[in-house]
Amino acid sequence: MLEYKSLNELVYEEIKKRIITNYYKPGEKLEIDQIASELKVSRTPVTNSVKALERDGYITIIQRSGSYVRSYSKDEIEALFDFRAALEEVVVCRAINDAGSSVLRRFIGIFESCLANLAEETLADEMQYFDEMQAQFHSYLWKLCPSIIYNEIQNVMDLTKQITARHVSYHIKKGNAMDFATNELAIHLSLAKAILNKDEAAARAAIRQDIFGTKKDILVHFDEIIAFEPGL
Length: 232
Known about the structure:
The mean pLDDT is 89. This protein has helices at residues 7-20, 32-39, 43-55, 74-98, 101-116, 123-142, 147-174, 177-196, 200-220, 222-227; strands at 29-30, 59-62, 66-69. It is globular. The longest helix has 28 residues, at 147-174. By secondary structure, it is mainly α. It has 2 domains: 7-69, Winged helix-like DNA-binding domain superfamily/Winged helix DNA-binding domain (Arc Repressor Mutant, subunit A); 74-227, Up-down Bundle (Four Helix Bundle (Hemerythrin (Met), subunit A)), CATH 1.20.120.530. The chain has a 3-stranded antiparallel beta sheet.
């Protein structure tokens, strides 16, 4: 069945994608007229989308000043990752009973291949591919939940994507990404295997290691990551 999306929804998703991928940087002012021109729409769906993005935590609207990409404090980042960890523990427990073994084996094969082929000279490309695959993996697990739960998990995950994207880019640019990438791949491989083997304790441990490990590293390097400009 095809999913119908209104113009407001399409514009909302495009602006959110630009925020998550750091096309719009934290603290950057969003120019409504410019965005409307780029997307070839009127101001109305852009204005509606900006209001919705403020409600969902991506944008700050300052009266008589404008709309700005929201910057998160250390406390907010910590709370987001703690909340995400609690949600994803529920997700992996459901996945143990509901996930398809063929799908899990496919992801296990992908993670094993990524781990075996890691090399310094191609690390940036490999990390981009792994990031896409792990996002698909997590999304598959979330979709095993009822849609009302999936929507909430998706929003929490999206709120963490901007900082995690900067986190990965930071380690790549600093030249210490090999250990970081190896660890991330090993954790996701362990998680997929634990779910396949219906080992709830191991699955819970893996998801907590993944999320809390990322949170800890972001908080340790918080000021550098926030100041870091991906792509430079």
